[in-house]
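Good morning N.,

You mentioned wanting to compare the apo and holo forms, so I went ahead and generated the holo version with S-adenosylmethionine. This is what I fed in:
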Amino acid sequence: MNLNEVQKASQEQFAKQSHRYGRGHILENVDDVSEALRSIQLPTPAKVLDVATGGGHTGLYLASSGHQVTLADIAQPMLDRAKQTALERGLTVETRQHPAEDFPYGDATFDLVTCRVAAHHFSSPNDFVRETARVLKSQGWFLLIDGSVEDNQPEAEEWLHQVEKFRDPSHHRFLTPGQWTALCQKHGLSPFKAVLTPFKQPDLNWYFETAATSPENRAEVLKLIRNAPDSARKLYNLGEETGKIVWWWQRLTLLAKKV
Ligand SMILES: C[S@@+](CC[C@H](N)C(=O)[O-])C[C@H]1O[C@@H](n2cnc3c(N)ncnc32)[C@H](O)[C@@H]1O
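and this is what came out, ligand included:
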C-alpha cells in the first residue's frame, strides 16, 4: 500500500491501540446505526462495505442483521480482531485492508457504505466520498457517523482541532454538516438527512488512555482547556464532574443516496 503521512500516522496509531476498540468500548453500542438505518429500505441481503471498521461494531451489527458485509480498515490488527469477534459471534464477514481514500472494488458494487467515528482521520474526505459514490450501486446508500462541529463556529472549531491533534496526532479534522453535504453533492450523492446529536466525552483521562497520549501532549491539552475561549466553553459545555474533565461533542449522522 502506498500511504501518505496522515494515513501512515493512523495506521501506526490504530495498529498499536487495536486492543482498546473491541468489547467494552463505548462504540460497541450501535443504537446510532440502527436508528439511522430505520428510515431507509435495504435489499435483503444487502452488499455492505464498512469503511474504517475498527473493532467492527458497525459492520458486525449489519452482518448480524443478515447482510453480506466487507469490513475494511487501514490497520491489519483491527481487522484481525474484528474477524475474531465475528467468529465468536458466529458471523461471516470478509475483511480487506486498504485506505478510505482509495478502494480496491469495482464501480457499483455495494448497496450500502457505512463509516462510523473514523472519517476525522482521513487525509482526504473528498477522495473518500468520491470512492464511496463510485462503488455504490444506483439508489445505494451512504451512512456517515462522525464527530463534527456546527457550521460557522471557526474559533470553537479551531480550539477542538488543537485539543484533538495533541490528544491523538493521527486526528486530521472534524468537518461540519455543511462541508460533508457539499462533498456528497459534488460526487452525486443526494443528502437525505444530516442531524447533529450531542455526545459526551465522559472523562478526559479515559480519552487520553484510549489514544495513549504522551505526557507532554496531555500537558498541552490541559493548557488549552485552561485557556479555552468562551465560544468553545459554551459550545462544548466544557466542565468538570466529580473531578473528571468532560465536554459534549456533536456527532453528525448523515444519510445520502446515490442518484
Ligand atoms: C474509532 S475506530 C472506528 C470505529 C468503528 N467504525 C465502529 O463503528 O466501531 C477508527 C478506525 O479508523 C481507521 N482509519 C483511520 N484512518 C484511516 C484511513 N485513512 N483509511 C482507512 N481506515 C482508517 C483506524 O485504523 C481505526 O480502526
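Residues 7, 10, 14, 21, 27, 52-55, 57-58, 73-75, 78, 99-101, 116-118, 121-122 surround S-adenosylmethionine (CB under 6 Å).

Happy to go through it together on a call whenever suits you.

Best,
F.
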